[in-house]
Amino acid sequence: MKLCRKFKLWKLILLLVFVVIFLQIFHMSLLSKLESKETEDFSQINKVLLEIESKVRKPHRLDKSGTYNVIPNVIQASRRPTMNSENLTIITQCTSNHLHHLVELTEFFQGPISVAVFTYVNDVQNAVRSIAYYHFCNKFIRRFVTFHMVYPTDTPPINSPSWDVTFDCDTPPTNTDSANYAIEGIEYPHNLLRNLALKYSRTSHILVIDIDMIPSPNLKEVFMKNQKNYFLKKTTFISRSAHVVPAFELKNGYDVPKNRMELIDLWEKNIIRPFYEEACWKCQKYTDYDKWRASESELTSAYHADFHDPWEPFYIAAKSVPQYDERFKQYGFNRISQICEMHIAGYQFSVLTDVFLVHKGFKHTQEFHKTKNDELDKNRILFRKFKNELKAKYQESVRRC
Question: pTM of the predicted model, to two decimals?
């Protein structure tokens, strides 16, 4: 009897061993196929570059105003999400000289990222070269980042027979820290770029950030935990809800904190501080950073925050959020106009207490470009008009901003 039991036990152990071995082989096979696919993609560089050239040279669609040419999906991520496989896409935008920020961003957030790149005249080939370099020379960017392009109709690419976008993975593109909206004589269309990147994202929810921001490593985990809790409580997920991710600024030369405890430690040492604390404190203070610091650190905890002008938080929300108004260009009111519409449309804001965003470098008022105040005055007039339009659009709403 004992021998029989021992024999059965050994059979069970052997069976489990074979199962483990099989699962490991199966897992390695999947990884091998994935790496093989990515290597195959890498071998198609010339083909991809020719396809991009064709997209740039051929006529393509314009934006609503007819002022900009729009080229979606210039290069797509090798791992393209579906509404079920991934729930969150980071939406961002920049000029070609800021694409290097994607390297660190994808290291911290290994999930879908949709980026719209603004270019113009002689910069087009440089933009394509930079996009191709980061796609083919960085495994995380290749897996997760989808690129789109926008350029003004009155400054199209040079219609030259020569097309040189060759690159070497050992030589990164030249980058500068100049502001996106410091391009001489060309208006930078933040909101058009955001709308483009948002439209071609493939997940149910989005987080719109600046490209030089880094999310805390646990961002996806916290978001997924919140989603799961809604389901377990058998409550309907409110489509008009926005989960605010508190934003901070980090002194140059320091590493981005890996968790809340590290961030608070750096905060106490004045190495990190709330975003825009010097540049525009009213734009962020309604996040209530003191309450955030005093809150318990739990994956699902959050507190309600009321909208007050001129609050412009960074948030996670359903992809169905109101579009950004594309009339706002250059500096000022481009983000708050969309937050304002969300508020009037009935969105509720709650602040997540265990996640954060970090902007690399302190924002100082004296560092803004010289035309900032003129642009601010121009957009302030447009914002007043925009708010009156919202009253007509949401006649039943009693909210104002």
Answer: 0.85
